[in-house]
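Review form for a predicted model. The reviewer records the input and the model, then writes brief findings.
Reviewer: anonymous (R2)
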Amino acid sequence: MLILPGSPALSAFRKEKLLEALPQAEALSARFVHFVELSPTEGDAGLDERERQVLDSLLEYGPSLEDAAVEESGSETFVVVPRPGTVSPWSSKATDICHNAGLAKVARVERGIEYRLKLNGPADRGELAAALHDRMVEAVLDRLEDAEVLFTHHRPRPLTSVDVIGGGREALATGDDAEFSRLLDGVGRVETCIGKADHLGAGGLCLQQEGGIIG
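Model under review:
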């Protein structure tokens, strides 16, 4: 995996608003970082000089790279990336562009944001991470090198089913998938709705909170 730093990820306004949401931090920096997976068949020898120049030029956008310099001493690092196991829309488009530019050795390009926070005292890392990412579509890593997890390939698992109609909420709670746990965190109650919601169709499953239907 190649790790290529990019341009600043936040405007001055967005940086100011983020600092307001993080009273534990007195300063922060944020820059895009690109992670490049090389094809196992094409990329054994790595990119040659011409290919690297093409890749660097494609990933050079936005403000000057010097403006994205980060202060490493005394700062906490948070690397926000798309959730492992997913492919972001940005990645799909960027990978297509690389292939159209003749970079056959590039299997996939993904982008994350490296945050560095200078704290004004002790702080809970989990609380800081929660303010920096959307847990539904993103994950937070400790180091840039940990982004290797984005390119982990797994065999598809056998299809399993959960008897929600027969088991209700408890049936979801016994599932192994972490998605069920996240879903249950925000769901007040689970109902089976047959013929109650036209847009879901007969036999649809309604997940409802006090405010209404979630999905």
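Findings: The CA atoms of residues 149 and 158 lie 22 Å apart.
Further findings: The first strand starts at residue 2 and ends at 8.
Recommendation: see findings above.
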